[in-house]
Each structure stands twice: as C-alpha cells, then as structure tokens.
Amino acid sequence: MAQGIRTTREHRHHDLLRVQQQQQDAIARIETLTRHVEGLTASIEQSRVERERQEARCLEFGESAAQIKARLVELQEEQAQDMAAAHQLDAGLEDVRRAVSSLRESRMAVEVKKAEIRMQLGTVESTLLGTYQVDLATLLESPVVEMTPEQLSIGKESIPEGQPAVNEVALREQLQKIREKLDRLGPINLAAIHEHQELDERYRFLTTQEQDLSTSISSLKEIIQRINRTTKDMFAGTFAELQQKFSEVFVKFFPGGRAELQLVEVPADETAAEGRGPQEPGVDIVVQPPGKRLKSMTMLSGGEKTLTAMALLFASFLIRPTPFCILDEIDAPLDEENIGRFTGVLHELSEDAQFMVITHSKQTMAIADSLFGVTMEEPGISKIVSVRLGNLQPV
C-alpha cells in the first residue's frame, strides 16, 4: 500500500512539474504574443499616419491635377478662339480683296470714260479749229453780247447822225454765213460738262474708298503677321515638347535606341520643287534602333515602323492627355515580341488614362482589366459578352 501511495505521489509530482512547465510556456507565449500585439499596434498606428499623409498628398495631387486640367482647357479655348479669329480674318481679307478688285474695275471704267470724253473734246476742238478756224479756248472766254431789236434795226432813222449808212446786203450775207457755220457745227452736247463733273466726283469717291481699303489691308496684314508669329512660337514650343516625349517613349519600345524629330524644308508645290517657289517646313523622323545605324524611318522594317508610329502617337497623347483613348487594331502588324513591348508601354500609360483597345491579339487581351466581345452561341444570334479579368466574373 505504501508502494502505491509513493507511486501515486510520484505521478502527481510529475503532473505538477508538467503543469508548471506548461504554465511557464504559456506565460512565455503570452509575453511573446503581447510583444507581437504591441508591435502590430505600433505598425497599425504608423500605417494609419502614413495613410493619412498619403491621403493628404492625394488630395493635393488631385487639386493640382484639376488646376492643370482647367488651365489646359483655357489654353485650348484660347487656341480655338485664335484659330476662329484667323479664319474670320482670312474671310474678311478675301472680301476686301474682292472689293478692291471691284473698285479697280470701276476706276478703270471711269478712266476709260474720261479718256473717251477727252477724245471727244479733242475731236470737237480740232473740228472747230480746222474747219471753222475757231479756237475753243477763245470761244469759251469771249463774252456773249445780247442785242435788242432796236439795236438790230437797219433803217436810216436808227443810224446816228455823222456816221456812214450801213450796207444791209452785206449784213445779211454775214448773217447767212454765220448761220451756215452754226449748221455745220451740228448739235452740241450741252450735258458733257455735267457728265464730266459727275465722273470726276465719282473718281474722287472711289479714290477715297481705295485709300480706306489700303489702310484696312495694311491693318489686316499686321494682324495676320502677329497671328503667324504667335502660331510659330506655339508650334516651336509644342514641337520641342513632342521631341522630348517622342524620345522618351521610343526608348521604352527600343531600349538602348534613340529617336528624334527634325524640321526640314520641303517644296510647297511643283515650282518650289524646281527651286523657284517658297519653302514650307516639314518634319522628318530619324530613329536608331539598338544595334543599328541612325537612319530614316523609310529604311525600317514593318514592325519597327509600326512601333515608331506608336511612339509618336503616344508622345502626342502625353502632351495633350485625355481621360479616354481608343485604339483600333493598332497591334495588327506586330509579331509576338513587339506586341510584348507594346503591351508593356500600354500598361504603363493606363495608370493615368483609360484605354479602349480593339484587337484580336491574345497577348493584348491578357493585360486588359475587362473584355467585351461578341459571340454567336446559336447560328444567326449574336450575344455580347463582358468579363472582368481581375476576378474572372461577368461585368
């Protein structure tokens, strides 16, 4: 019996030791868990502070983006107004040109009419001088003497005493000659002087109008020159910005390569091509894929040309970004490797804008967030299917 009690005590002693060991392990574990909880609490607090700071920065970025977008809208509206004003000025200049042309034609008609009148006056003067020996200037300057019937009487009682008698026959002959001369003169256009005055007034009026139009044309030319200078400055700034963005995007498609845009002078027309006409600026695309020499875009392969065009397209998009961008079969000419480059750049740009891509490439579809397509489960019945790839659930 004593042996059994001893055995029981030993078992209980071992159980007590085991319980004490478990209690110590539990206390140690509780201390470990307490320290872990304290660490998690500190991490949570730090995460909360960091989140608040990030939210504040997001608000600041949102306000900055809103201000930038508002400024961009204002600049676009100003550009549209400048373009509308330029179109109106072009239309007004065309109207002024037509008015000037009409006035020139009217002036030419007036000059022709004046020349005809001068010719007619010259003919009359020549006829008077050659046929009747009458100078037109003397005739116009000589006063007209009016005589009463008493002064024209030829009787003896009208002749003052002490003067010789007048020969009535000689006077009648002289009168007959004067009448014949008047008959040979023919009818005189008494309205010629009045017509000349009207044409002269019309000529002075048209001259004044021409001067006013010349002043208006000079003012319009000055405005056009100012618009051209403004447009040139805007083009230079936009071109420099496009040059920078194009180089950055090209490197993403061709790591280790480089590309640039060059302004060149190209003939404005066929005469310019022969060296006789004005020159207009053009843009040449010069690229250098990695491992190749610098060359023109026309010397590239089909895939390289497509990627270069994509780089220029995305560069212009980055200059004037929009919330949405639609790409229709842009990756059709590309092989699998080039599609991988395209999808990488597209995925990077999709962080700031939403892209809608129409494509048949599986690689391009793989990076999309959502897919929209048309399927025909039954012959003749089309069905639109949409899938969100993030959770593989129908949209």
Order of helices and strands: HHHHHEHEEHEHEHEEE
Q: Name the structural class.
A: alpha+beta
Counting copies of identical and different chains, the oligomeric state is: single chain
Cα end-to-end separation: 81 Å
Mass-distribution shape: rod-shaped
Number of helices: 9
**How much helicity do the residues have?**
55-70%
Please mark out the parts with pLDDT under 50 across 5 or more consecutive residues, or reply none. Answer: 143-166
Total strands: the figure is 8
Spatial order of strands in the largest sheet? 1-2-3
On the 0 to 100 scale, the average pLDDT is 79
Q: What is the alpha-carbon Rg in Å?
A: 52 Å
Taking the sheet with the most strands, its summary is: 3 strands, antiparallel
How much beta, percentage-wise?
Answer: 5-15%
Explained architecture:
There is one protein chain. This protein is of the alpha+beta class and 395 residues long. Among the domains are: 19-188, no CATH class; 321-395, 3-Layer(aba) Sandwich (Rossmann fold), CATH 3.40.50. 66% of the residues lie in helices and 13% in strands. The protein is built from nine helices and eight strands. The chain has helices spanning 2-131, 136-141, 149-152, 168-185, 192-253, 270-273, 302-319, 336-349, 362-366, and strands spanning 258-267, 279-288, 295-296, 324-328, 354-358, 370-378, 381-388, 393-394. The strands form three sheets. Strands 1-2-3 form a three-stranded antiparallel β-sheet. Helix 5 (192-253) crosses helix 7. It starts with a helix and ends with a strand.
What is shown here, in short?
Among the domains are: 170 residues, no CATH class; 75 residues, 3-Layer(aba) Sandwich (Rossmann fold), CATH 3.40.50. Helices cover 66% and strands 13% of the residues.
